[in-house]
Structures are given as structure tokens and as C-alpha cells.
Amino acid sequence: MKYHLGRTYGFRLLLEPRVQLAAVVVILAVVLLFRALQFAAFTTQDQWGYDFSAYWLAGRHLLDGLPIYTAQQLAGPYPPQQQYLYLYPPFLAVIAAPLAAVFDDYRHAAWIWSAVGALVAIAAVVGVARAEGMRQRRQLFLLVAATFALPAVIAELVLGNVHVLLLGLLGLAWLGVRIGAPRGEVLAGAAVGVAALIKIFPAALVLWFVLTGRWRAALAAGATVAILAMVTLPFTGLQAWLDYPIVLANLGPPPGKADALAPTVWLTEVTSFTVARVLVTAGGLAILIWSSRRQATAISFGVAVMVSLLVAPALYHTYLSLTVLPFLLAMSHLGVGPALAFSYLAMFGGEQPALGDLAWIVSRGLPTLGALGVLSVLLTARSDQAAERATPERAATTSAPSS
Fold first, then answer.
1. pTM here?
2. Which residues does the chain have with pLDDT short of 50?
3. Rounded distance, CA 266 to CA 255, Å?
């Protein structure tokens, strides 16, 4: 007599959607409680506001009429991971200047920065999810909970980096793409332009605009960069903008590989940093070109976001908070398959000193595999597969680029 596991009462219950949903809710609740305790603990540690300290200090230097970049950054190659080291365009220092003017201690200002980041993350998830047809309160709650369950998002809020802000801006860019027409394209381009002024790698989305025929968006991105740069000149002076290309060109490899997830850093095991950087950038551009020409709009936009992230030579765990947007696009257009679920869970890898020399598997290997997994899910999607899951209201946006 053949025994069927699925006929056993306890296991049969696990196949019911209501039971599966209840299990997910319980797991997320436990994880969120743990994340809340983590956040509270880290606010009393050295990690609190570690990255934000660089923006705060750059803003303070602007207020005091001092350079925002160090002599070391202008003299030659330098490691990109140091507290107070400002690596970004001058625009971000202008944004941080009001907090530097109000707060004498960056750790106090970091509370405002973190709160704004949390609100931006919630708005981005809810806005994109609703636009993609996921409008039930239960769905939105689960998506927001899953976002804050990610270690990268909590680490982002603790360290005070900019990737949740970029998540909001690129989410806004996608909403502009969905709107279409001139006003939608201008909105999308402006959002990407602001994102590129905060951190340079989102500029890859401008190429996606060009490749998909969204010339208004590309022009709007360039115009936004030019206008905002001009507006900030009275605060930054011209020299800071002239220095930034040198600072960017002199950016060296990370001082240690324990936290580095960038494919460029992985490739330095077999070649030089410069060669690895060129190879990864060329490969990313090839993927972006192929996807923009062959795949549905929503899928290729998700690919563009992932490529812009993965070609960055300095890629750490907190950067993965930006993968929330490609996750949302993949979920809404392709569903949640095993590969996407694995990619999400792989990003939970963290520090495990007990593993000794094999700790890199959890700390670097799994998160990198998770990011590459999201990209792979998007790249292997068929246009007809995405179209089948598209709701009627978004069918036009999903099926083809705008003219």
C-alpha cells in the first residue's frame, strides 16, 4: 500500500493557502521583532550613523567654507571604506547641510536621517506595489514587513547610508515610466537625475531610457543634473564639482573583502582591480542592452536597476536594500517562484565567526548569490510570461517601450 505524505492531516494542512499565509505572518512577525531589537541595540553602538557621519561632516565643511574631499582622495588611489570619508557628488553634502547646521553631533542628526529613510522605503514599496496591482491591505502589509525584515534595510537605517533614498527615487522613476506620455517621462528622468546626483551608479538608468526610446526621460535626467548642479554652486563652489571626477577616478578597491559583494571584487581573485572593473562594466552594459531590446519594459527596468547596482566597484550589504524594487517588479509580473524565494532568503546571510575560514560563504557568498539570483530571474523571464501576469491597466506599459 503506497503511502502519500500529502494525505497526512498535519502535512495536508500545510498545503492550504490560509495555513501557508498564517505561517508567513508568524515568521515575519518574529523576524521583525528581532530586527527591532537589533535596531535598538545598534543605536547605542559605533555603527549608529557610521555612513551618515560622512554626509554630516561634508555639510558642516560646506557651512564652514572648507573642502569636502580630502587631499588623499585627490592625490591618488584610496580605499573607499573609512568613517567621515565623503565619496559622493557635492549635491548630497548640500542636502545634509541643514542637519549639520542644526545638530552638533551626527549621532543625533542620524535619527532624522533614519526616520526619513524608513518613510521613503514604506512609500516606495506601497506606491510601486499599488501601481503593479497589489492593492489589498494584507498584500501591502506583507510586502512592507518583508522589506524591513531584510538585514540590508535595517543595516541601511542604522548606518545611515543613501540606498533607501535611491529606492524611493528609482521607484518614482518607474511610476513615471508607467504613466508614460511626456509628463511621465519627465518625472522618470528627473527622479533618475536626482538619484545620480546622490550616488553616481543610478546614471546607468539614463542608458536604459535611451535604449528603450524614452528620449524625453534621458533629456530630463541630464537637465535635472545640470539645473541642480547650478543651483548648488553658491553653496559648494565650482572647485568641489571639478574635484569630484578625480575623486571618482581615484577610488580604489575595498581595504578588506570580508563585506565586499561587488562582482568586481570577486574577480580581483584572478585579475587586477582595474581589469575586473572594466570586465564587469562591459558585461553589465551588454546585459542591459540585451534586456532593453528583448524583454518586457517592467522586466528590463528591473534588470537595469540590478545592473546599475552590480557594476558598482564598492558594493556592500546595505546596497542590497535597493533590490526591493526589482523584487517587486519580478513578483508582480512573474510570481514568486523558488528561485526568487531563494534569492530573498540568501540575502539574510550575515557574520558567522563560528564558521572560521568558511564564514565568507554566509557573509559574502550567499548575499552575492542572492543579488545575482534576482538578476537571473529577471533575465530568464519570457515576455509572454510577463504579459500573462500583467493586469489590463498595465498591459501597455509591460508589453512595449513608449515611442
1. 0.88
2. 1, 5, 388, 390-403
3. 13
